[in-house]
Amino acid sequence: MVGPESTKRPTMGDVAKLAGVSRKTVSRVYNSEPTVAEELVAKVRIAADQLNYKMNLVASDLRRSGGRPSTIGLLIQDVSNEFSASIFRSVEDVAEQFGVTVLASNLDESAERERELTSILIARRVDGLLIVPAGLDQSYLANEQRSGMPFVFLDRPPHLVLADTVLSDNENGSFNGVTHLIEHGHRRIAFIGETGTHEPARQRFDGYRVALQHATIPVDSNIIRQDLQSETDAERAIIEIMATNSPPTAVFSAHNRLTKGVVKGLRTMGVERTVALVGFDDFELAYLLQPAVTVVAQDPATIGRVGAEKLFKRIHGDHSPVGTQIVPTTLIPRGSGEISAPRRPSSVAR
Amino acid sequence: MVGPESTKRPTMGDVAKLAGVSRKTVSRVYNSEPTVAEELVAKVRIAADQLNYKMNLVASDLRRSGGRPSTIGLLIQDVSNEFSASIFRSVEDVAEQFGVTVLASNLDESAERERELTSILIARRVDGLLIVPAGLDQSYLANEQRSGMPFVFLDRPPHLVLADTVLSDNENGSFNGVTHLIEHGHRRIAFIGETGTHEPARQRFDGYRVALQHATIPVDSNIIRQDLQSETDAERAIIEIMATNSPPTAVFSAHNRLTKGVVKGLRTMGVERTVALVGFDDFELAYLLQPAVTVVAQDPATIGRVGAEKLFKRIHGDHSPVGTQIVPTTLIPRGSGEISAPRRPSSVAR
DNA sequence: GTGAAAGCGCTAACAT
DNA sequence: ATGTTAGCGCTTTCAC
Question: Residue B344's pLDDT is what?
Answer without folding.
Answer: 65
